[in-house]
Each structure stands twice: as C-alpha cells, then as structure tokens.
Amino acid sequence: MSTPAKSTPGGPLVAIGGAEDKTSEAEILRRVLSLSKKEAPVVGVITTASSVPDDVFGEYHEVFSGLGASEVLDIRIRERSDAASEQFVEMIRNSDIVFISGGDQMRLTNILGASPAMETIRAGHQSGTVIAGTSAGAACQSQTMVYGGPATDSLRKGAVQMAAGFGLVDGIIIDTHFLERGRFSRLMEVGATNPEYLGVGLGEDAAVLFEGDVMRAFGPGHVIIVDSSQISGSNVFELSDGEAVTVHNVIMHALVDGYGFNLKDRRVLGPEELRTEGLEHWVANS
C-alpha cells in the first residue's frame, strides 16, 4: 500500500507549471490573488531562482498590480546572507501571498534552505499565508524534488536527478513544463524507482491547489498524474546506471480546470464530487 500524499497543514499552496499567462486574462495569477481572501493583498515576489531578477520582478509587479495587489514587494534574496537578512524576513512576514518565481530550483534550496527566510515562509504557510510558485518555484515545494534529467529519454536507471525540496507537500514529485518539454519519462523513472511517490506533471499555464488530501487543477493547461503505486513489475533494481528501464501498469490521468485528485485514495474527482470535497474541507477547518 502506498504512503498517502498530502500537503502540510496551513494556508493555500499553489504549484504552477510555468509560462503562465501574464498579459491577457492572467487566469492563474488572478486565482492566486483571490486565495488570500483580501480585497487588495500584499504580494511578495521571491526571484532567487532566476538569473534575470530585474526582468522577472518587473513582469510580476506589473501583472499583480494590475490585478489589484495593494503592494508588490521585491524580495531580492540572491545569497545565503540575504536569506538571513531581517529586512527580507520582515517582507516575507508582511506578505499575504509569497510568490516564488521560476529559474533554477537548486538555487532556491541552496540559498533558502535552513535559513530564517525559509523558516518564515513555513511559519507563514502554517498561519494561512498563500504560498505559490511557478516552474522551479513549484518543483521545490515537494519533500523530494526533480532538478534534472533529459526529457528525450529519462527512462533509464539514474537518469533523473533528485534532491531534497522544501517539504511543503509530502509523497509527491512535481515536474513542470511537463507536456511542452516531453517529460513523461522522467516521472515514469521516478515511479519505477519508488512507487510510493505520486508524480504530478504540470503543463504550462496549468496549476494545482493543494488542500489537505485534495489537489485541484485550474488554469487553461493540463495536469498529468503519474501513479506508479500499482505497478506490476520493473527491472530497475537489476540494472546498471544508464540502462533502459521497463515498468508495467503505470496509471495516468489528465486533469483540466474543474477536476481534482484525492491524494489519499488516489482517484480522480469530477466537478460535482470536488464541490462536495470542498464543502467538507471548509467545515473541517472552520
């Protein structure tokens, strides 16, 4: 029996597959803003993962301001010393929404890991702050994260590179730009190596909201679920690194806006059942 996947208790947690619309409807970012339940929330943007933080912050400042944020904070953490700065810690503390941009997820974990800034992000999440991330900022949310591996053929032993993430959600591996960069084989290799992990492949301009045992898909793109908990066989343990993996009976689902997934029971939730789950979650947390 697989270990149940679940998000840690706290405020809304959103993972976005990257390349979300910032110019027209901005459907996903508009939804992120609404999750704060405030008319004009303060958004803190962390651009640590990016090599072009000026450009990235400028884009998010424009779109979040246009969507109704009262203030968009530039949380410019570039070095580990910045992650210990009281100035940046206070900016995180004052944010209703903490938004983590894309780039290199290893920069995120290396610079923010075991820092006062990360402690403040976790404390904020536990007290109800919205935490959202796109691309690298989504991949780092899981306890174990994917940080590398070729898209063309990762179904080889040892091809997918993994490291410790931030642990905001357990039992899940998140991969981003999933359809656009052909990353199916990456999550299949992860599942063959350890079937307990539920693979969540986020397409571009697609997102999920984690609420306890329920994961809700939203946005125009696709969310792909790769469930290896029922695999009937694999040769992965017999192989040397680089050799081709066979794996059987992998279950996949494609979700779109309005659908969800029960992480405990590992089953798809349709719109009607998802509304029921949402009501039960609201009652349990009221």
From TrEMBL:
GO BP terms in the entry: proteolysis
| Gene3D superfamilies reported for this sequence | 3.40.50.880
Q: Where is the signal peptide?
A: none
Tell me the InterPro entries matching this sequence. Answer: Class_I_gatase-like, Peptidase_S51, Peptidase_S51_cyanophycinase
- Report if keyword Hydrolase is assigned: yes
UniProt GO MF annotations: peptidyl-dipeptidase activity; serine-type peptidase activity
Cite the entry's keywords alphabetically: Hydrolase, Protease, Serine protease
The source's superkingdom equals Bacteria
Catalyzed reactions per annotation? [L-4-(L-arginin-2-N-yl)aspartate](n) + H2O = [L-4-(L-arginin-2-N-yl)aspartate](n-1) + L-4-(L-arginin-2-N-yl)aspartate
Which EC class is this protein assigned? hydrolase
Q: What is its EC number?
A: 3.4.15.6
Q: Active site: which residues?
A: S135 (charge relay system), H177 (charge relay system), E204 (charge relay system)
**Coiled-coil residues:** none
SUPFAM superfamilies tied to this protein: Class I glutamine amidotransferase-like
Family under the similarity heading: Belongs to the peptidase S51 family.
Functional summary from the UniProt entry: Exopeptidase that catalyzes the hydrolytic cleavage of multi-L-arginyl-poly-L-aspartic acid (cyanophycin; a water-insoluble reserve polymer) into aspartate-arginine dipeptides.
Tell me what this protein is called.
Answer: Cyanophycinase
Q: Which organism is it from?
A: Halovibrio salipaludis
